Amino acid sequence: MGLLKKIFGGSAEPKEEKVLPWQQLNSLEQLNEIEKRSATKTQFIFKHSTRCGISRMVINQFVSMYKLDLNADLYYLDLLSYRDVSNEVGYKFQVMHQSPQLLVIKNGVAVAHASHGAINDMDLDRFI
Prior knowledge:
23% strand, 5 strands
């Protein structure tokens, strides 16, 4: 078994998982709060489909690349469980729905958004 672990990269020590400061986005009322808070602090909304392999891959890449020192609030939206909230995000911030999708909210408006692989190409530092 030791040889197989060496060949396939297994390790006896578990990897530490990076944990992001996600805030669950699960109510319509939170959107008004996000809009208000965006006047003084950048707000990120990550829309994730829990049934989509591409969405899972993108969110895993996002987590590994996200800089924990960013001065922003980070919201996670399970769009399948909270479809009404997902629909309202698109309407309120005038962004066509996609999944996965990241929205950057400043001063009450979406100043940037990306979907799929383009999410991880965004330079989030420039929006802080």
